[in-house]
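Deliverable D5.2: sample structural annotation.
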Amino acid sequence: MKPKTNIIVLMLDSLRPDHIHCYGNEKIKTPNIDSLAKDGVIFENAYPEGLPTIPVRTALFTGQYTLPFRPWQPLTPQDITIPEILTAYGYTNALITDTYHLFKPGMNFHRGFHVWRWIRGQEGDVYRSGPPKYNPEDFMKPEMKGTHVEKLLIQYLRNIADRETEEDYFVAKVIREATEWLEKEAREPFFLWVDCFDPHEPWDPPPSFEKMYTDPNYRGKKIIHPKYGKTDWLTEEELNYIRGLYAGEVSFVDKWVGVLLEKLKELDYYEKSLIVLLSDHSVPIGEHGWILKHPHTLWSELVRMTLIIKFPENTYAGTRVKKLVEDIDVPATILDVIGLERETRYMHGKSVVLLLENQVEKLRDYIITGYHESLHRCVRTEKWSFIFRPEGKDELYDLEKDPGEARNLIDECTEEAKKMASYLARYCYLYASRRSREVQRMLQLKYELSELPL
């Protein structure tokens, strides 16, 4: 018997769970995400198994671990993806996205979809070549000049040259394209993957949302895309402004989440569909003295992901799950819910239905995450976070007593640290050792071929 359940996945890149009301944030307004959560299940300890953007999508599309084997790379001919599996069961598959990394030449993330719509112009997408709509000087401090971010920012300002109204913003374009497809072209059963690059930087919400959380007396630069690195080049006022921009971006994205949910209800798809709202990871905004993603910033402000699942007929509505789940559990859950559990045999993830039906106490004892290109690794249980540092300065935090990870207990809780470190297994340490020698050789070669000192 072929499955009939419609599937909608809504990816919101870099959406921090601690910036959503239903996850406990009392300041930031997210009524539409909250309404979905009310009808669904909130997962409070969800993590990507490998970072950042492309490895997470690879894991979500294939159900396979990427860490430590796969870097940021295209889908391979050997990969079997969710849309390809669903096609065999009569699904119509659509991918609608402005996440430009997915549609760069050769990436192949549209494989298995019958329809794919690319919304051009996000961040550094080389979409337009004319003059920027705004003066780049208004968006940059001197410390940003000559950096990669300066190029990204100027390209972004070119890309938004035709922006006039709120509907011209990228998240609005993506959602409007999705609702149009649902209205005019969807054939049941369907699999709709809506991949929004927002609230990823640049944090550039419409003026009404920009003003929601920023100081009205702020007169500094409009730093919508700060440079990657430490925050010592920013004043406290500037950092607060940037945080306000991100919060405004979150609320703006939430507004358009509501547009999609209302269209699903209007077309009588909402109740009977499986709806997954998630992010790929979070984003640091000054915590621990760093801003934006870095391979070593493996604290909660980067490694936590948002995950809310609304099941058909709102089964399990209002449930909160504190057990550990990973991104690879999402495809396994999708296939399980629609009756294709057998198709998960060669996937590494497990269906969260096992938890919701109390068939198991937990899916796993711990998670491991990090960047393929980096030797830093984060190991987490529900209580502890252990961060392996290749230079030897490991970190251990009690997440229950110290959720902000301010107090490193590595020298106080030595037995717990050893236990957490042991989860990495010998493979990780051998891998780190070999990569360390490889990096040293690369640095030596760079030194030998240049006139610059190491």
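Annotation notes: The radius of gyration is 22 Å. DSSP finds twelve helices and 16 strands in the chain.
The annotation will be released with the project's public dataset once the embargo ends.
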